[in-house]
Amino acid sequence: MDDFGPDFTPEQVARGRALRRAQVPWALGGQAAGLLLSLVLGFTPAGAGLVAAVGGLFGGSRTAEVLGGAAVLVLLGQAAGLPFSARVRAVRTRYGLVTQGWRGWALDVLRGLALTLPLALAAVYGLYALTAWSPQHWWLPAAGAAALLVVALSFLYPLLVEPVFNRFTPMEPGPLRTALLALAERDAIRVKDVLVADASRRTTALNAYVSGFGATRRIVAYDTLLGTAEPREVELVVAHELGHVKHRDVLTGTLLGALGAAFAVCLLSLLTGRQVLLSAAGVPGVADPRSLPLLAACAAVLGALAGPPQCAASRRIETRADRHALELTGDPAGFIAMQRRLAVANVSDVDPPRPLELLFATHPSAVRRIAAARAWRR
Ligand SMILES: [Zn+2]
């Protein structure tokens, strides 16, 4: 089972496995802690009491309960996950994957909060304006608003969110840039530029991605990738990203996400209409801002249930982009070299246990991707 032939040395396989074993319990622990906190606050009267108490600090009005409650839920959720993500980071530091100090990490956490907090406050404010308008029919406009929000955020993400964390520069003119633009042209895809992100300020890991759609679409490569991989390997990474562009994966994913968000709002309205849940939370109905922790708990459960199907869809999309890279370049040997480079540099577990892969992996394992390239060659 452990023989991956010439692709990975036993040391490389063992190192990836050891990192996975060291970090997965903390990563999953963080998710479990967040979920548990949501459940305790939402399905007992504790959350309603907390919202009332925080609202009371700011005058006790409905608006104070809505905004104070939303803020305290976001901050508590962040606090519950923080020790676990710090531990994951410490593990990754031991494996040489982290280049950023704790100060920079703390700044990133604050930057994340500065983005999520206003957004959460605005969304929850809008939501409770709707439940006050109609405790029966709030979900109809809320579902539409949730779908629109997903589309708007995905479109604006490259403009509003990415620049908060990284600096992006057009790739420097040279043979590699010329080769990448020629590759896109051969693929009949209009690409103005390949952008380079200064990922090396945080990590030694290698990556590239596509984000945005329409006017905000962009292909981004990590500077770590350009600094360490062979030009041919970079071309194969970009060929994979062109596969995402060709199949409009970001747009499709956004539209599916929008539908999913609208559907989730409908489910939330059904769940929060159940007397047994309202009684458990100690609130009379969704028009009462003290129902916020119950809504958040139901949303957290739906989010956790949606994880594995989302990962399965993602793995299919990644497999399709891999295939596109092979068809565009006709270079399975280069593709395999690129997969080996990424797996070793990122200290990936090249062949993780199947249940972990099914539940949490957004990409097929390196061993599967390499096997698929060999199958394609035949
Ligand atoms: Zn991909």
From TrEMBL:
What InterPro entries does the database record attribute to this sequence? CAXX_Prtase_1 (IPR027057), Peptidase_M48 (IPR001915), Peptidase_M48_N (IPR032456)
Q: Provide the cofactor list for this protein.
A: Zn(2+)
For this UniProt record, give its keywords in alphabetical order, as a comma-separated list. Answer: Hydrolase, Membrane, Metal-binding, Metalloprotease, Protease, Transmembrane, Transmembrane helix, Zinc
* Cofactor binding note of this UniProt entry: Binds 1 zinc ion per subunit.
Q: Where is the CAAX prenyl protease 1 N-terminal domain?
A: 24-167
| Annotated family | Belongs to the peptidase M48 family.
Source organism, top-level taxon:
Bacteria
Residues passing through the membrane, by range: 26-54, 66-88, 109-132, 138-161, 250-272, 292-313
Keyword Membrane (UniProt): yes
Name this protein carries in UniProt: M48 family metallopeptidase
Q: Does the keyword Protease apply?
A: yes
Which Pfam family would be a valid example here? Peptidase_M48_N
Organism whose genome encodes this protein: Kitasatospora kazusensis
The Peptidase M48 domain covers 178-376
